[in-house]
């Protein structure tokens, strides 16, 4: 019988969604699994990228382009997100990857760069043996119904509200 993979959602407004996905990636790599990490709205500037490059079986692509956080959205942002989606569609359907992570995909939907149906389609084309992890604030109701595992990171306190910006090695 073929190995059964599942669909995970890590959402909510507390810290830990991307780090949970990276932790799973580390475990999977250690187990000899192949991993594809696709990141929406990010470029290669995150500290994890230099460490991920050292891990066996792991491929990372950041689909963010040159966009700055808070800047108005452009046609180019839309094109980057669509390119990322295309890439993930291939990744989940190819059978090449044991674990595929779509980081911040729900934020891309929230911003209107992708449609909810684009995300649901990833579930449709996914090979049953491929584990799929979707992260980001604002997961929408239908994906919460369809995922096999849903974790909500609930903010109880965050130093961000005291004015502490994202720090290298901790948030970025
Ligand atoms: P991490 O990457 O640390 O696991 P995350 O993926 O759960 O965090 P995101 O929603 O992707 O969190 O947002 C991360 C950015 O938003 C950080 O740079 C952080 O400074 C800022 N931020 C503001 N409030 C929060 C909060 N309550 N939880 C997490 N991040 C927050
Ligand atoms: Mg995140």
TrEMBL record:
The answer to whether UniProt assigns keyword Transcription regulation to this entry is no
Q: Any coiled-coil ranges, and where?
A: none
GO annotation (BP), single: cobalamin biosynthetic process
- What range does the record give for the signal peptide? none
* Superkingdom: Bacteria
Q: Which GO terms describe its molecular function?
A: ATP binding; corrinoid adenosyltransferase activity
Keyword annotations for this protein, in alphabetical order, are: Transferase
- InterPro entries assigned to the protein according to its UniProt record, in alphabetical order: CblAdoTrfase_CobA, P-loop_NTPase
> Which PANTHER family did the record assign?
CORRINOID ADENOSYLTRANSFERASE
Please state what the protein is called: Cob(I)alamin adenosyltransferase
Protein's organism: Aminivibrio pyruvatiphilus
What is the organism lineage in this UniProt record?
Bacteria, Thermotogati, Synergistota, Synergistia, Synergistales
């Amino acid at each position: 019988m073929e190995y059964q993979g599942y669909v995970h959602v890590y959402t909510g407004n507390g810290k830990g969604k991307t780090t949970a996905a990276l932790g799973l990636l580390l475990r999977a790599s250690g187990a000899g699994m192949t991993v594809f990490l696709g990141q929406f709205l990010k470029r290669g500037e995150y500290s994890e990228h230099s460490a991920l490059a050292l891990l066996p079986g792991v491929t990372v692509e950041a689909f963010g382009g040159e966009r700055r956080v808070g800047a108005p959205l452009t046609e180019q942002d839309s094109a980057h997100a669509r390119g990322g989606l295309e890439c993930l569609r291939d990744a989940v359907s190819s059978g090449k990857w044991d674990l595929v992570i779509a980081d911040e995909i729900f934020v891309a939907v929230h911003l209107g760069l992708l449609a909810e149906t684009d995300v649901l389609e990833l579930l449709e084309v996914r090979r049953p043996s491929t584990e799929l992890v979707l992260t980001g604030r604002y997961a929408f109701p239908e994906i919460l119904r369809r995922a096999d595992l849903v974790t909500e990171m609930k903010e109880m306190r965050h130093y961000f509200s005291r004015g502490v910006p994202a720090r290298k090695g901790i948030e970025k």
